[in-house]
Design a protein that fits this description.
Blueprint: H1 2-7, E1 8-12, E2 17-20, E3 29-33, E4 38-45, E5 48-53, E6 58-63, E7 67-71, H2 77-88, H3 94-107, H4 115-133, H5 138-153, E8 158-162, E9 171-175, H6 178-185, H7 190-199, H8 212-226, H9 231-236, H10 239-261, H11 266-281, H12 290-306, E10 320-326, E11 332-338, E12 351-355, E13 358-366, E14 372-380, E15 383-392, E16 395-401, E17 410-418, E18 430-439, E19 442-451, E20 457-461, H13 468-473, H14 476-481
Helix pairs in contact: 2-3, 2-4, 3-4, 3-5, 4-5, 4-6, 4-7, 6-7, 7-10, 8-10, 10-11, 10-12, 11-12
Length: 486
């Protein structure tokens, strides 16, 4: 009798259930219990169960209506799993579902446990972490915090990651992915493997303080995890599942292209950049959900930032020569030379500047007059600037155009064309630009006509077809290669 009682557990099904000192409604409350808390049943008095709470290390009484009794017997495991299946898709009941998973794993024979239970555990843990990362009223936030503590009692670990300067103070809570790692190591369905791979390769669950070597190793590991979904499994996925995997693979490949470019590995850079572009182009845009549209925009910015990695050929310039050389440790210095009539550069540079970013020399484009040049410089894997060399009143200056002035989370700005210039006709030379950013969780794409004399935006639109200058002067190579026109 005693052994049987010790195997009988009660799972709390209501938030703020009372653990009382006596089996009476008026008895003092020992503690507030939450969904998913597991209690050891030691007896029953009236309509109260006498229990022991191992998490809080105290005993008491709880009303039978606030809990569900479960058995640790193997024959009861299928019933527990059926409850897990129901709770897996129930938003707000994650801690309760995690409690049932724990009960199932205790009851089921080892040979009967497959990937389904771990898939459910990971799914609920990840959803709980996402809920905890959103802004809620204090009462709701307190409930979610209590649910996190319940999950932690079962060994479910979470970690917070700062979300960059665009969301100062914002923290993304992430599940550590242990259950999903188990899914990847076990026989499972294509959907389960894909869901696990996506869960443990999220872009927003990475530390911003990683050393570059550690960041490269982590990104390479993420790429390997995503490729664990084999071609056969990929073919079995729904279109929605295929899209999500393509978007993640595109984003990771774009990041790898940048990381490898910093290590001067041109062949590997080109392979990753080309894969990023190919994965993005393969997305079936008709099968994107509302949430996937946001991810599609994010992936496009990531791919757009590193897309010059697919072109290793140096730009061909006529009146100007752009030379890169090593500066201090980790630096690349750009020197601009005016060419002599014979096409050879002058001995002294007219402008020079160094950067710790990746200089995409294939992106260099000079104005036909020889009085301006643009080149893409990427300091971060999700951030690409445009450096503009221009001659004003006989002096050369270097200006850095960022993707946006208000610190976007992701972004790139790129050259899209030069306007024609007729010297002495009062015409102001212009440069065409394309920008794409994500700020405050929203994606924005714009096309601009900028004056070269002041670098002020003359005209701007969300579609290049709305700007006459793009119809006249847009660069053919940009139109062919840019992902901003997807």
């Amino acid at each position: 009798m005693i052994a049987t009682a010790l195997l009988t557990l009660a799972i709390v099904t209501q938030d703020q259930a009372s653990l009382r000192a006596a089996p009476r409604d008026a008895a003092a409350q020992q503690a507030a219990l939450w969904q998913g808390d597991t209690l050891e049943i030691r007896g029953q008095r009236l309509d109260y169960l006498q229990v022991y709470d191992h998490r809080r290390e105290r005993s008491g009484f709880v009303h039978v209506s606030q809990v569900r009794q479960v058995s640790g017997k193997p024959q009861d495991a299928p019933e527990l799993l059926s409850v897990v299946r129901f709770l897996k898709g129930s938003a707000g009941a994650e801690s309760l579902g995690i409690g049932y998973v724990a009960a199932y794993l205790k009851a089921a024979p080892a040979e009967a446990i497959d990937a389904e239970a771990f898939d459910a555990l990971g799914t609920m843990a990840e959803r709980l972490a996402r809920r905890a990362s959103l802004k809620h009223p204090k009462a709701t936030a307190d409930v979610i915090s209590a649910h996190i503590e319940v999950a932690a009692f079962y060994g479910v670990s979470f970690k917070g990651y700062e979300q960059g300067y665009a969301k100062e103070g914002a923290v993304q809570l992430c599940y550590n992915g242990e259950a999903f790692r188990r899914v990847l190591a076990m026989p499972a369905s294509a959907e389960q493997h894909a869901r696990a791979a996506l869960a443990i390769t999220r872009h927003d669950c990475l530390s911003a303080d990683l050393h570059p070597k550690d960041k490269l190793a982590l990104d390479q590991w993420r790429a390997e995890v995503l490729d664990k979904v084999t071609a056969t499994e990929f073919a079995q996925l729904s279109e929605m599942g295929k899209n999500r995997l393509r978007l993640r693979r595109a984003g990771v490949a774009a990041t790898l292209a940048f990381q490898l470019a910093r290590r001067a590995a041109p062949a590997a850079v080109a392979a990753q950049a080309e894969r990023a572009i190919s994965e993005l182009a393969s997305v079936n845009k008709l099968e994107l959900t509302d949430d996937d549209l946001q991810d599609y925009g994010d992936a496009a910015v990531r791919v757009g930032a590193s897309r010059w990695g697919s072109d290793a050929a140096p730009a061909k310039l006529q009146k100007l020569t752009l030379v890169t050389q090593a500066g201090q440790a980790g630096e690349t210095c750009l020197s601009l030379f005016e060419n002599k009539p014979d096409g050879k550069p002058q001995p002294e540079p007219v402008a020079k500047r160094c950067t710790y970013g990746v200089v995409w020399t294939a992106s260099a484009s000079a104005h036909p007059s020889g009085q301006a040049l643009s080149v893409a410089v990427q300091p971060l894997d999700t951030w690409r600037e445009l450096w503009v060399f221009r001659q004003t009143a006989g002096q050369w200056t270097i200006d850095v155009l960022p993707p946006a002035s208000s610190n976007p989370e992701l972004g790139y700005v790129e050259f899209a064309g030069w306007s024609a210039w007729v010297p002495g006709a009062g015409h102001v030379p212009q440069m065409l630009l394309a920008r794409e950013t994500r700020m405050a969780g929203r994606n924005k794409r714009s096309f601009e006509v900028m004056r070269l004399d002041t670098l002020a935006t003359d005209k701007q639109a969300s579609d290049p077809a709305l700007l006459a200058a793009f119809g006249k002067w847009q660069d053919a190579a940009w139109k062919r290669q840019s992902v901003s026109l997807r």
